[in-house]
Amino acid sequence: MLKVDNVTKYYGDFLAVKNLSFEVNEGEIFGLLGVNGAGKTTTFRMITGLLDKTEGTITLDGKPIDYNVTDKIGFLTEERSLLTKLTVKEQALFYGQLKGMTKRQVETELDRLLERFHILEYKDRKIKELSKGNQQKVQFIMAILHSPKLLILDEPFSGLDPINVELFKEVILEYKNEGRMIIFSSHRMDHVEYFCEKLLILVKGETVLEGKLKNIRDEYKKKNIKIIGDVKKEELLKIDGVLKVEKAGIEYIVNIKEKNCVKNVFDYVKKQNNIEKFIVEEPTLNEIFIEKVGESYEK
Amino acid sequence: MKNKLMFLIGEGIKRKVNTKTFKIVNIILILAIPILINIDTIIKFFGGDFDTATEVYINDETNNLYDTFITTFEQTESFTISQTDIEFKKLEESKEDLENDIKEDESKNIILTIKSDEENILTAELTAYDEVDSGLEQRILNTLNTIRMNIAIQQSNISAEELANIYKSVEISKVMLNTEYDEAAENIKTFSYTLIPIFIIPFFLIVIFVIQMIGAEINEEKTSKSMEIIISSVSPKTHFISKMVTVNAFVLLQSILMLIYGAIGLIIRSKINGTGIIESFGINLNQVGEMISTSSLLQEVILALPLIIILLVLSIIAYSLLAGILASMTTSIEDYQQLQTPMMILIMVGYYLALMASGFENATFITVFSIIPFISALLAPVLLIMGQIGITEIIISIILLIIVIGLFFKYGIRVYKVGILNYSTSKLWTKLFKAMRQKD
Hints:
- The complex is a heterodimer of chains A (299) and B (440).
- With 299 residues, chain A is α/β, with parallel strands linked by helices.
- Helix content of chain A is 35%, strand content 29%.
- Chain A has 2 domains: 2-217, Rossmann fold; 221-282, Alpha-Beta Plaits, CATH 3.30.70.
- Chain A has helices at 40-47, 88-98, 103-116, 132-144, 162-177, 189-195, 213-219, 233-238, 262-269, 285-298, and strands spanning 2-11, 14-24, 29-34, 55-60, 63-64, 73-76, 150-154, 181-185, 198-203, 206-212, 223-228, 242-248, 251-256, 277-281.
- In chain A, the strands form 3 sheets. In chain A, strands 6-7-8-3-9-10 form a 6-stranded mixed sheet. A 4-stranded antiparallel sheet of chain A has the order 2-1-4-5, covered by helices on one side.
- In chain A, a hairpin with a 2-residue loop joins strand 9 (198-203) and strand 10.
- The longest helix of chain A has 16 residues, at 162-177.
- Chain B has 440 residues and is mainly alpha-helical.
- Chain B folds into 2 domains: 52-167, Periplasmic binding protein-like II (D-Maltodextrin-Binding Protein, domain 2); 183-437, no CATH class.
- In chain B, strands 2-1-3-4 form a 4-stranded mixed sheet, sandwiched between helices.
- The longest helix of chain B has 41 residues, at 183-223.
- The A-B interface holds A 12, 45, 48-51, 67, 70-71, 73, 75, 77, 79-86, 90, 94-95, 97-99, 142 and B 1, 4, 7-8, 11, 15, 220-221, 224-235, 421, 430-431, 434.
């Protein structure tokens, strides 16, 4: 288990992370979210041992993070972290052996992963000659080459086409099912919703939301009602509890204050003609994120 | 950690040696260095005007001076460096025919007409197509003067002893009041002035090479963000040491290879000339041995040689550490190129002071600079050769360098640890000084 306990990090007088605490269990994907400059990279760097904490503790399987533990961590950075003058094989041999693998282990595992990601033919090609998407695949392979217990994925789908996004999703879920711990960070909330049971949102280094995604949704009172039919936006807005009405194509999306307001909207809609759709939906993570982050910025 | 350090060093050297650039540069060097060492032989091989001797046809109108001229010329030439570019021949055909041949062929051959005037005084005439080499003309003139003098002596009945006294030069004996004066050392100094650039330039080039390579290595890993992956596996200290060792080992390897290429060139030269390697450059080994045995200064220089080597090695280490620390603070190779300017200025100060030292003997300013780290490597050995400083000053330079290296290592690692993960140039110096105050 990865345990981040009450961790604070200062750069001089600047507070980068304040009293951060969370746990990632085996077989769990944890979402660490936040806008740019929220403290995510600092957190990743502390977990991977690149930065010292000002306060607090970080342990992996009960052991504090040091160079005996970091070999069990795989890190896919948001930006490219590859020596592009090297070939894929040279890069794998360099990173793999640095993480304690033997040359033979690297070669065997590399072949398996290159095949899994359909880029075996690029094994002896220089990384700089590969497309952006293939470079991202190579970067992902480098992060998982040494079969890490903890995998940190910072924007893993960057530069990928939809087909390869699906491939990455499959591999990430395989890793989860193998019992590995995964920290997932992305600005794409649909991806976070897809993977993460638990998440944490950072704003200016402080935790503004944390917990299981289901609980977060439940606690978030606002709901959305999707309607297709002969309804009028102005009349919907007059209903008690309706906060906002948007029209997307032929569909109206009615944002309501709380679950109790559904009845008020339904009472109006059932009197209208040609109603084809009336669905009450949970709020998206994107909405929750925007609202929570927005509130914290206003403070 | 030790294994990872060795892995990083091995991987770093392997990666450099496996580059196409390294291979191509070494192919060029293995050809260029022996060629440069044997360039005189190569030039001669392709021939040219220098290669064919000038034929001097002697038209002896006195009918009795041809043999005298040849003998006298050979005697005169025996006192000078061997000259083989003249071939004397007796004019057998008519002078006019030969003149026509020279004119027709635009030949560089010459006709030397030796004759006596009305007063029986020796005169001569040189006939050539367009010009007569001034050196050749002087050598013929010297020979003719000697012959004319010998004839005059015979006619005046002056004895050989009397003549010797007339031409004997005045002897000047030197009396030096300084009992420590070493004449051989003075000769060595003169000899050393020519050696100084030969000694300084390779060191100068090695230091620049090391500085640039360390900067490029660290910047490449930093800008590609691969530094983050590497530093998550090894400590910044291990990474820092690995960079220092890798670059210096690579420079050492390249230097050894260049020495081998030089040795190949020298062996080829000695085989072509059929002499020893040193002798093939016209250097007399006996003279060099004599010079060493008679000069107390040179003996001191030889004794100080291990210390000089230590000073040079430590200086390269100090420059490497400084380059590594500065490279960690920069965010691109362009930034680093600007930041390496102070280091270049330090090297240039050492270089110019070393060149100027001979013009300012015993200058306190230059002597003080010779013990200052970074400058001492270039200046101290030169001053030692010139006898302006002794072994004590070299030892002081080494001690100061060790202190500087220790400080660089202690505080430099702290800066390096912060610098390699810093991608912003704002408040760079504040960050640097804060990092230096942080404890490990």
